[in-house]
Amino acid sequence: METVSVLPELTIEPTEIKLMSGSEALMRSLVAEKVDTIFGYPGGAIMPVYDALYDFQDQINHILVRHEQGAGHAAQGYARMQGRAGVCLVTSGPGATNLVTAIADALIDSTPLVCIVGQVGKKLLGTDAFQEADVMGVTMPITKWNYQITSADEVPEIMAKAFYIAQSGRPGPVLIDMTKSAQLELMTQPFVYERCQTIISYRPRLTPKQDQVEAAAKLINEAKRPYIFAGHGVQLAKAEEELLAFAEKTGIPVATTLLGQSTIPTNHPNYVGWLGMHGNYGPNVLTDQADVIIAIGMRFDDRVTGDASKYIRQAKVIHVEIDPAEIDKIIKAHAPIVGDAREVLKALLPLVKENDHTVWRNEFRKYDVIENENITAPELSGDTEKIKMAEVIDLLSRKTNGNAVLVTDVGQHQMMASRYYQFRQKNSLVTSGGMGTMGFALPAAFGAQVAAPDRQVVAIIGDGCFQMTLQELGTIVQNEQPVKAIILNNNFLGMVRQWQQLFHSRRYSFVELQNPDFVTIAKGFGMAGHTCNERETLSDSLDQMLAFDGPYLLEVIVEKEENVFPMVPAGASVSQIRLK
Amino acid sequence: MTTYTICIFTGNTIGLLNRITIIFTRRRINIESLTVSETERKGVSRFTIVIRHESRDEVEKIVRQIRKIVEVLAVFGYLNDEIVFNEIALFKISTPLGSKPLDVETINKLHKAWVVYWGLDYVVIEKTGNETEIFAFFEYLRQYEILEFVRSGRVAVGKTEKGLVEYLPEAEWAYYL
Ligand SMILES: Cc1ncc(C[n+]2csc(CCOP(=O)(O)OP(=O)(O)O)c2C)c(N)n1
């Protein structure tokens, strides 16, 4: 029987009255932010979100990792390559606490993350419910912002804020703790998503003040031995071209920080090397001879300054920073410029005079010769019984023409990778700088590869580091990402061993590892690989790895007790850098 | 050691107190007193935090770290002579039968304090003033039996519009209410 209704309310479109759950609102918010990839791991308190995700698989690629720390580092690798927030989705309690290391790493290395974490239902908060942890409390000191969503209606506005805060100004991790009740309940109003553009209490300055720019330009134009330090901020601001234009016009030598590497090609005539504890000789020593330092998007980390009280006391410092709290924090700035590195360099360019500073730049070359004679040439000479880390990186650099994305872990191999890889392209080094998180590289390389499918991603990993996150081999294989992983196996926690050798009279306290067979482990995960133990087969081994269609693990057995030099001993001044 | 009064204007969100205090605890700075109240603007809270520190530079750095908190609207650091400030103290004094009678006149006229509650064998006296005045009054009251003594945190208003913020390279990122 057919009945025709005359009641007006039945003419309302069903979509107009459909109210959305908090979980679905979350999915729609991610779509509105153009998020197409998230890294996650499910569990009880985030199940409603995973249920909503089931219907969004065509729009959002969820990658199931093997450990939440892996999700965090993968999202970091992704964010660093894409220049926008990486997104993680994990459950409450242990899921959230497993993410903590990556969040802390992202904060100190200014990496944008949006971490969505399940939480017990609102009524259970504070009752020590199953898998309840005070994640807001735990993450407060290590997030740029965190917020607990307890009602579905909050979702669109809070997610918009989360992405805005994570990605704007000095980027950083944001954590959203979402109660299960908020995931389940229905919104009481229609879902409307407006991207956040501004927050009254948070207004990062992008455009610098003209008087600050002018004061800096004056110092630069009068300088006899000016010197640029390019930090991670250059990459975050996508200011690589502006940096080059500025350096080329003024002729000023450019050194980078660890994270600033690859912002300028290593064969560029203005590039002089990188700074810091294991950085290059000349760039460290000549820090004490510059008369004007132009520090761009860097924060004078103690691994760069050595003893900060003895650091660049002779020079005037121009400090270009988006985060005003960094100015004068470690080193007093004579001419601070608050602003985005790109905007600042654009504003400076017309005000600085053309110059070449050849004599000054040639100073650096003198030190290059010393460094080469004492360190680089011997390390690459191939006259030792075992392969040296330097040889592997040097060969890799040549075989990839300096065009790979290196994702490095933490330790000697990290420093060697930075010393010997000749970066030709911008955005080519992903490493854990400020936190020095062992286990970072494998998941971060995975995330970087997902973010940059067209680039060759090579992870350089120590045998110690590898064993912190090796389960992510499973993620790499399951997602068919062609990540190449090189384990530089010295059978030691090498960097710690080096310190014990140099500063603790060779008292090797718990630094030797009994390692598993890494290649067998890779095979167990379904990943191809082989071990290279002989110098004669190194070149072929690298070729084989690079040519392989798919993920590959290459283990290289290296010299057990080599040390990374030059080295500024902890607490020494940069000019006390040691060559041996 | 110099006393600094840090006034922080914020939005009103849960957890902000924690976010602010961890900036001090991480640097091992003891908070001498802390008060929070809503300001003349709805939804805007004002934290008044008193610390003692040897280095003005360090205090400026802390001010900037606080300024970084997303919900913080403005931060001002003040020296004592740049603000009008007060605290309130309550004294509970034992007055059983036969004890020394209170000299209410001295309490009122000399110490500008007031008996605000008469119990059966005790009184509660309220004294408003700065730390020195309150301690002077405490000394005076020692002749009686002090059952309880409690002091609030400092509240302060600036004598000028700006404080330490003037010395920051980017004074303008403070948001004036
Ligand atoms: C999570 C974590 N734990 C401990 C350390 C301290 N640490 C720094 S480097 C290092 C040794 C790394 O050993 P390995 O991965 O074998 O690399 P190598 O130095 O030998 O190249 C250690 C233990 C750290 N950085 N991170």
Automatic annotation (TrEMBL), chain A:
UniProt enzyme class: transferase
Annotated catalysed reactions: 2 pyruvate + H(+) = (2S)-2-acetolactate + CO2
Record-listed E.C. numbers: 2.2.1.6
Cofactor note: Binds 1 thiamine pyrophosphate per subunit. Binds 1 Mg(2+) ion per subunit.
Swiss-Prot/TrEMBL cofactor(s): thiamine diphosphate; Mg(2+)
Highest taxon in the source lineage: Bacteria
Cited Gene3D superfamilies: 3.40.50.970, TPP-binding domain
Family statement: Belongs to the TPP enzyme family.
Name recorded for this polypeptide: Acetolactate synthase
The organism of origin for this protein: Fibrella forsythiae
TrEMBL record, chain B:
Record-linked Gene3D superfamilies: 3.30.70.260, ACT-like. Chain A, domain 2
SUPFAM superfamilies: ACT-like
Matches recorded under InterPro entries: Acetalactate_synth_ssu, Acetolactate_synth/TF_NikR_C, Acetolactate_synth_ssu_C, ACT-like_dom_sf, ACT_dom, AHAS_ACT, AHAS_small-like_ACT
Top-level class of the enzyme under EC nomenclature: transferase
Keywords, sorted A to Z: Amino-acid biosynthesis, Branched-chain amino acid biosynthesis, Transferase
Gene Ontology MF: a single term: acetolactate synthase activity
EC number(s) per entry: 2.2.1.6
CDD domains for the chain: ACT_AHAS
Superkingdom classification of source: Bacteria
ACT domain location: 5-80
PROSITE patterns associated with the record: ACT (PS51671)
Pathway where this protein functions: Amino-acid biosynthesis; L-isoleucine biosynthesis; L-isoleucine from 2-oxobutanoate: step 1/4; Amino-acid biosynthesis; L-valine biosynthesis; L-valine from pyruvate: step 1/4
The reaction(s) this protein catalyses: 2 pyruvate + H(+) = (2S)-2-acetolactate + CO2
NCBIfam families on file: acolac_sm
Family in the record: Belongs to the acetolactate synthase small subunit family.
Protein purpose: Catalyzes the conversion of 2 pyruvate molecules into acetolactate in the first common step of the biosynthetic pathway of the branched-amino acids such as leucine, isoleucine, and valine.
Subunit structure: Dimer of large and small chains.
Protein name per its UniProtKB record: Acetolactate synthase small subunit
